[in-house]
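Case 355 in the screening queue. Each case pairs one protein sequence with one candidate compound; here the compound is S-adenosylmethionine. For every case the pipeline is the same: read the inputs, emit a complex structure as tokens, and attach any notable structural observations.

Predict complex for case 355.
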Amino acid sequence: MKSLTDPFGRIHNYLRISVTDRCNLRCMYCMPPGDSRRHDSASVDGEHPAGSAFPAFGAAYDDLPHVQGLLTFEEIIRVARIFTSLGVNKIRLTGGEPLVRKDLPVLVSQLAQLSGLRSLGMTTNGVLLEKYAQELRDAGLTHLNISLDTLRPDRFVRIAMKPSFASVMKGIESALKVGFQRIKLNVVVMGNVNDDELPDFVAMARTHPVSVRFIEYMPFRSNKWETASFVSWHEMLRRIARVYDWSSAERCYDDSGVAREYRLKGWSGTIGFITSMTEHFCDDCNRLRLTADGSLKSCLFHPAETNLRSALRTGNGDDCIETLIRAVVAQKPATHAPVEQLVAAENRSMIEIGG
Ligand code: SAM
Ligand code: SF4
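Case 355 output:
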């Protein structure tokens, strides 16, 4: 059996595929206002026309000439098949917002048929989930992460720049109803923005079978990260323990391998912390990332990338693509730079990489 093993012995069995760099939200930490790449978008092939099907959501990144720039479904499937032949058994679709990519359930059903795949997940902002939850489940999606940074509709508008709170809540309900077994809720915790809501989010795990995962805010190009907006997981825990009796919390298994996950006695759900900034998990990293325009990245925070799209489009065989993939894995850094250095690092923004 082939595997993608790097010089530090880490086996890469997990591929995150970004299917678009467009989004129907504008989260302040991901696609911040003032970024020079923000534009109002025109309709493009391959994606829902912004401004028509979803009139509330007009603006999107549109630097990529999308018709040629985005990997097609055929190209994504071909790359994914090469990866699964190299030992990848877990794929997650991300973006931008994956559900703004037209016909996404079709891609899901094609990926779900790949032999060797154990897990096919998606990270979504949930805005379009009410419409797609059942279709995605039927198509073979196995895992769902939904991002939600506040439980207050007015604050949602401030963080995501769109009045879509109610749609996201309906999306979460629909996802639970159609039987996604353990939905993860991703909450990016930001000082003086939503850090006062930690106990409210924790309360969701008491009654709902969800895993609420608090994510340390990460710095990316022009996302205005600053020390004052950063809340470490230790600080999050300290604040939660002021409200909840944490002495009964038990550490539990987390299939992502990146969250410190806990369950309070008798609760339906769990609480997790993604500690990438204060306590990284690079030693066990098993992830590779494919951007929407077909570049392969070995690390979220490392600017190096290798363009697979041109190799795919110039008649190269699978062995050539495999060689390129192996070269990326061979050059994966041991660890990412500390947070103080990441603030000034040259890298794509989160929405372009795919989280
Ligand atoms: N649009 C989808 C969503 O929001 O779930 C998928 C793409 S989004 C880039 C993937 C994840 O990255 C989301 O959970 C989002 O909250 C997280 N994220 C984006 N920027 C971040 C940052 N600066 N720090 C920490 N997490 C971030
Ligand atoms: Fe869009 Fe997700 Fe980024 Fe928010 S975090 S702007 S929903 S891609």
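Case 355 observations:
- Residues 73-85 form the longest helix (13 residues).
- Residues 23, 25-27, 30-31, 95-97, 125, 147, 351 surround iron/sulfur cluster (ligand 2) (CB under 6 Å).
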